[in-house]
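In keeping with the milestone schedule agreed at the kick-off meeting, the structural modelling team has produced records for the first pair of proteins. Each record is given below as a sequence line and a structure-token line. The laboratory manager (R.T.) confirmed that both were archived under the project's standard naming scheme.
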Amino acid sequence: MIPFLKYRLVYALFSAALILISIFSLVMWGFNYSVEFTGGSNLQYQLSAPKNEEQIRSVFDRLKIPVDEIEVKNNLVDIRTAAISANQEVQIRNDIGNLGTKVTVLRSETVGASLSQETVKKTFIAMGLAIVGILLFIAWAFKNFTFAIAAIVALVHDVLILAGAYSLMSHFFGAELDTMFVTAALTTMSFSVHDTIVMFDQLRHYLRRTGTGEVEKYANISITETFVRSLNNSMTVVFMLLALVLLGGDTIRFFVLSLLIGTVVGTYSSPFVAMNLVVWLLKRKKR
């Protein structure tokens, strides 16, 4: 048996530091939202001849289309504007072509304001339903709300740190918050609870036989017996995600990084946040 919970203060301080950094980033910088959440159009063109940002912007000024962002990198142009019609997109492409270059469309997507509001609404509903579903399932499976509360706190811990990390990526590397991030957050929630349930089940097995008198001792035994399996399981996912980060394309890089951060944080939180909290709650309940 390894006395993992002997260092509970270290885990608490480490988690508190990560959460404070996450909250600071979320409050100070927030996210760069994609058109899926704000509405508008995303255009990406490949040009046969290089053009600078001023030349591209002049096209939109002439057509009186508001532009949020134009990024020119080599012959690749990324443009973010207010929502435009298909006819306006064709006109933009033709006018850029008149600058003396051939234009190839790599991406053209438009999301209206009402659809973007619906996406935000569905995102919060999905996450809320996931949390409530997990809370009810664990409470039913373990016949004890103490385990459910500890699991949900660990889950919120993981999602908050993931959100803070993504906020930092948005601020320093230009990552946009889109539905891919929502997918990564929901996956993190699932992965976090999966590991937590395995450790809780092992602890419950001991408590059924011995009672809660030595809950910390049996929590340490439970972590020791399940930690290697949990770590091995997580590492197989981590290696796959690292390969995608290094070799995957730019379009999925931030999504994969989010999954990677979520996997690491979820693996950490199960033994060092959830188990720590459930032991503390059971001891208080005993009093």
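The second protein of the pair:
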Amino acid sequence: MSFRLANVDDRAVLVDSDDNYYDLATISRGDVGPDLMEAIGTTARLHELDAGLSSHEPAGQLADAVLGAPVPRPRNSFGIGLNYAGHVAEGGGEIPESPVIFTKFPSCIVGPNSDVVLNSTAADYEAELVVVIGAGCRNVSRDAAWDHIAGVTGGQDISDRALQFAAKPPHFDMGKSRDTYGPTGPVLVSPDQLANRDAIRITCDVNGERRQDSSTEHLIRDVPELVSYISGILTLAPGDLIFTGTPEGVGMAQGRLLKPGDVITTTIEGVGTFTNNCR
């Protein structure tokens, strides 16, 4: 069975097909605790518990809950730059010969409906599929990469373009890591729940206007390649995040950067929709 994992009031919950949620510590009788980071490392048990959800009473409805980040305290959070040809082209660049990887500091990670505090006149949106590592791994082959993934979620790689390009080479890490610049969610979805894990549609609207609309089938370097590449350099741990890159349509390319009062709506096919207010 597949599963959906969410963060309700800083407790791990499983979510059924009707969007009822079940407290993980309760239904597992303490076998798995309430901590999200612990739960992410127990994917086999999550599958078992999900299969028996119908025998438990739900704790509530997802629509009535305040959701936190499904991975609230990742050890590592990686960002991938220039990973869609359309995004490379709109910036006037060239497709890189090897993956462009930067650190998106974990302190920026917030929940799916958290406010984005701009702190800049040059903030930009970037809708992305985010991969969550399940089983720790090192030197993983492409063919085995999905076996080490707990699931996927949605992300906004909010970027301060002025800070990002304030130095040469650019400050990718600092420009993308201001407080609140990493909304994620709304839930973590196991890969076996996805209709096509290699072609997931991504859209982003700002104030109701569609700005980005693409699919992960257009990734220059797909999920297996990214997991294999990074794990060949360092050991990946349960809960590590990989923001896989954004498609074309970002605000910088259009001269339409974010401003206070803007509303960002991000939808990841098979995962869900989340909304962030800018202030």
